[in-house]
Structures are given as C-alpha cells and as structure tokens.
Amino acid sequence: MERRENIFKSDSEKLLMLVFIIVMSLMLPGCPFEGKLKSFNDMTPKEKAVWMMSVYNAQYDDYLKRVKAGLKTESEKNILRTKKKVLTKVYPMIKMYNAYIETGSLPEKETEDLIFDLINQIVTM
Amino acid sequence: MHDVLIIEAAKMALQIFFTSMKIVGKTTEEIEELYQKEKQAFELNQPENLPDV
Q1: Alpha carbon of B22: minimum distance to chain A alpha carbons (Å)
Q2: Closest residue, chain B, to A35 (C-alpha)
Q3: What's the pLDDT tens digit per position in A6-56?
Q4: Which residues, 6+ apart, have CB-to-CB distance to A51 below 8 Å?
Q5: Cα torsion through A124, A98, B36, B51, rounded to 10
Q6: Dihedrals φ, ψ of B34, to 5°?
Q7: How confident is the model over A86-102, as pLDDT tens digits?
Q8: I need a labelling partner for A34 at 20 to 30 A (CA). Which of A25, A42, A89, B35 fits?
Q9: Is residue A100 within a helix (H) or strand (E), and if so which, with residue range?
Q10: Which of A19, A54, A77 sits opposite B38 (nearest CB)?
Q11: Closest C-alpha to A90, from A116, A64, A58
C-alpha cells in the first residue's frame, strides 16, 4: 500500500495548522470569541484604517523576513512576487483612505470594498 | 504548490484574526493611538523598498 506524503513537512507547519484549527473553533457558537469580533463592515472608518494598515504592515514585515531567511522553492518566490504586486497596488489606496478620514470625510463604500478585496487577495494567492 | 498555498492562507487568516482582536473593546483614544502607531510604520513601509525575488 502506498504511503501518502504528508503535506505538512515541518513541525512548525503542523503547529501552525493546529493553532489555526483551534482559533477557528473558538469562533464557533457558544465559544469565547463568538460574536466578539467586529466584522469589517461594523468597524468605524478609523478602525478600518487601523485594520488595513496593520495587515499591510504585517505582510510587509513578513515579506522582508522571508527574503532574509532565503527562499527555497520557485512557488515560494512566485507567492512573494504576487504579494509585492498586491502590496504595491493597495498602498496608495490605503494612503488615500487615510487622507479621507483625516479630513473628516467618509470614504465611499466602493473604495473600502476595493481595499478590503485587495487585502483579501493576498490570502487567496 | 497547493500545500504552500494552504500554509499561506492559514497564516494570513490567523494574522487577520489577531489584527481584528487588536481593535476589539478599544476606546476612541486607544484607537487613535493605534492609528498613529500603525500610520508611522505604514509611511516607512513603502512597497518600492521591497527587494525583488
């Protein structure tokens, strides 16, 4: 009988998936975090800006860490190349969003949705 | 390629979750403080400074 190769090659990858499963199950009905997290649409404009910049900054730092650690496979490199494209695209949009809220204007829903979609693109790469 | 994508998606989902947790229960002043802190880093983290791979 053939042995299927484990998709999680290293212990840190296995640990990551375990943490992911635990965190997601804490979101289930009856669990501590259920209903506590605000969805993006429920956040105030300033909270949205904090969220956008926080995710952007974290992804930026992650990109640099990965490059410094050295990339082994072509697929890792391709993911980073795509990440850089998306980060480049979303940066001026977040900047514009910040300018809007600092003047006290309400950004258009379409602008918010576009930034949200771009940030989520990084997840689905 | 699929296993790398699964790991990346899990990492990103966790990151989004913990980022959202940063905002939960914060006062207006605390949000403003977070905003200024993130903005400082954001303005330094220009994408053209990212090295190509």
Answers
A1: 9
A2: B24
A3: 555 666 666 666 666 666 666 555 555 555 566 777 888 899 899 889 989
A4: A40, A43, B19, B20, B23
A5: 50
A6: -60, -40
A7: 899 899 989 988 998 89
A8: B35
A9: helix A74-102
A10: A54
A11: A116
Question: How many Å apart are CA B21 and CA A41, to the nearest integer?
Answer: 15
Phi and psi, residue B11, nearest 5°: -60, -45
pLDDT tops 90 at residue A2: no
A70: tokens are 């050295």
**Helices within A10-44 (DSSP H only):** 11-25
> What does the alpha-carbon distance between residue B52 and residue B18 come to, in Å, rounded to a whole number?
28
Residue A65 sits at the vertex; the CA angle it makes with B19 and A92, to the nearest 5 degrees, is 60
